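Continuing the batch. This is chain 6 of the set; chains 1 through 5 are on the previous pages. Same settings as before, nothing changed between runs. Recording input and output for traceability.
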Amino acid sequence: MSRIGKLPIRVPEGVEVQLTATRIAVKGARGELSLDYSPEMSVTQEDGTVVVARPTDQTRHRALHGLTRSLIANMVEGVSKGFTKELELVGVGYRATKQGNDLQLNLGYSHPVKYVTPPGVTIEVPDPVRITISGADKELVGRVASHIRKFRPPEPYKGKGVLYRGERIKRKAGKSGKAGG
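Output for chain 6:
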C-alpha cells in the first residue's frame, strides 16, 4: 500500500468538500478549487476526512493513488492556508515595481519587462528586490514564480538573476588565462 496514498486527508473547519463521480470541489476562505480525478480511483468523504482508495496493486493504480491524494491534500491546504513563493532579484539595477495588478521588472535589458498577473494569484513587492507570490493553487503559484524567474535565470559566473528565496547558486571561476603571465 502506498505510504502517501493511504493517509486520510483531514478537512479543517471552514472548508467544504463536494464529491461527484470523478470530480472533487473544495471551497474555503481563500477560494475555490476543483479537480477531475481518474475514474479508477475511489474518493470518499468520512466524518471530517477524505480517503482515496485504489482498485488493484497495478503500477498505474499505485501511481495514481499517491498522485490523487497529494493533489487533493494540496487543494485542501490551499483553500485554508494558501501557498507562497518568494523571489529575490540579485544584480546592479535589478528592481521590481507593481503597476496595478501587473509586475514591472528592470533586469538589465534595454526595456522594462512587464508581467501580467493571472487570476487566482496575488503578487506583492515588499522591497524593490523581493517579490512575493501567493495564492490557493500550488501549481499556479509555482508556475508564475517559474515564469518570472525565466526572464533572467541566475547565472553561475556573477551570481546575478532572479532567484528563489534561499536558493544558492553554485559559482564558477571565470577565465583562468587572465592571471597567467
